[in-house]
């Protein structure tokens, strides 16, 4: 791929020459994400320079066809963080939050690799997911929901994010991998320390590694009906370390985004007047609410790991240098008028949303994530009568550059009879 010089002979904008960039979190933490994307597009076009966090720039790609082309191209766009020049040139602070997603030495998981290595590691996860019955996923999630709801008093205040959505997401995903409730709860606590960059993150990471190692070894001796057993026996994984790394990424990463999916869907049904009324009148099914979230305001607006350019090239009039980070704004792409016109007749049967991404690094478990989220939402609606305890205007959004969900969703509830 070659660099195209603009007709005027002026060098296109590049990451090292632009200043005063917006943080990526402006697209996730405000009341109207699409307005934030639109402002960036008005200034820059479909590719805009942003900062993932202060001092860490990246290109934000917002067009549907552009994202599709990049996501499918492992030759020119890598997921291996060793190809990021901010690593190579030592430009990252030791406590940079992005290190949780892009460590200098990647895990032995498909998430961080390309080509044959990615294909081999990903095949093991895909095969294990295909072999796990969907009924078992629902049972795991329902057991978690039963425990959490069962421990609540009959009525009172409740935060549907911290006290329910986040917990159900993590504990259900951990259960799918065969962790008992007590161990999963410890893993969740340590995962929170790491994701929030709290003191003791290094020790928390070491504890998680030890738990995962013990779990994999125990499953070799005592198989269970879970993903860890299926992956530990897979011939494509060549060592216990590869098994551990292949389950560490979904246990930590996927669980957090399932929690966001649950929280965002509950927000839609509880706090959005249009949907609350339709739900109350029986005109809205839970699956319709899930589709609405995935299409209109996905819980993962920006794909949670950048790509890294392998060659210098021009993209939408910007000069992308080899080693630049590229973030795919899938939520913006879902609203690209080239695929989403707003005409309800055009939307019938439209399956072109990118909530699960696409290409070789597409989400491996969209069906499982949807089953867990549907189960979690249905249990709240079935077992609890909930009413928003604050105004819609008081709800604040998480500052994460990757996930979109309320910081908290305070409700008052009472347990339904029967």
Automatic annotation (TrEMBL):
InterPro entries: Cyt_P450_B, Cyt_P450_sf
Coiled coil residues, start to end: none
Family of this protein: Belongs to the cytochrome P450 family.
Protein's name according to its UniProt entry: Cytochrome P450
Organism ancestry: Bacteria, Bacillati, Actinomycetota, Actinomycetes, Micrococcales
């Amino acid at each position: 791929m070659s660099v195209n010089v603009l007709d005027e002979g002026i060098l296109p904008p590049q990451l090292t020459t632009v200043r005063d960039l917006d943080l990526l979190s402006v697209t996730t933490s405000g009341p109207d994400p699409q307005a934030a994307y639109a402002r960036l597009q008005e200034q820059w076009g479909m590719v805009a320079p942003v900062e993932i966090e202060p001092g860490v720039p990246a290109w934000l790609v917002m067009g549907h066809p552009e994202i599709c082309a990049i996501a499918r191209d492992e030759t020119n766009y890598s997921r291996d963080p060793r190809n990021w020049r901010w690593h190579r040139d030592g430009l990252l602070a030791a406590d940079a939050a992005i290190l949780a997603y892009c460590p200098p030495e990647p895990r032995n998981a498909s998430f961080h690799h390309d080509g044959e290595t990615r294909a081999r590691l990903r095949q093991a996860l895909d095969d294990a997911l295909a072999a796990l019955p969907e009924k078992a996923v629902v049972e795991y999630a329902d057991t978690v929901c039963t425990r959490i709801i069962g421990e609540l008093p009959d009525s009172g205040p409740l935060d549907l994010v911290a006290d329910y959505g986040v917990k159900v997401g993590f504990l259900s995903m951990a259960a799918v991998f065969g962790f008992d409730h007590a161990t999963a709860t410890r893993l969740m606590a340590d995962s929170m320390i790491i994701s929030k960059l709290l003191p003791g993150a290094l020790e928390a990471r070491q504890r998680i590694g030890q738990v995962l190692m013990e779990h994999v070894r125990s499953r070799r001796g005592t198989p269970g009906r879970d993903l860890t057993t299926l992956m530990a026996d897979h011939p494509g994984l060549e060592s216990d370390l590869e098994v551990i790394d292949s389950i560490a990424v979904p246990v930590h990463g996927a669980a957090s985004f399932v929690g966001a999916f649950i929280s965002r869907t509950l927000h839609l049904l509880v706090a959005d007047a249009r949907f609350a009324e339709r739900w109350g009148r029986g005109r809205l099914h839970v699956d319709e609410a899930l589709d609405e979230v995935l299409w209109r305001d996905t819980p993962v607006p920006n794909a949670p790991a950048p790509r890294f350019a392998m060659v210098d090239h021009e993209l939408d009039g910007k000069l992308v240098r080899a080693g630049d980070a590229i973030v795919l704004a899938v939520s913006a792409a879902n609203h690209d008028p080239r695929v989403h016109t707003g005409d309800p007749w055009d939307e019938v049967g439209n399956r072109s949303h990118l909530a699960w991404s696409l290409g070789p690094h597409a989400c491996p478990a969209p069906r499982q994530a949807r089953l867990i989220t549907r189960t979690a939402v249905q249990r709240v609606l079935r077992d609890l009568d909930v009413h928003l305890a604050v105004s819609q205007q008081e709800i604040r959004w998480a500052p994460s550059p990757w996930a979109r969900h309320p910081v908290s969703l305070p409700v008052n509830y009472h347990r339904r009879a029967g």
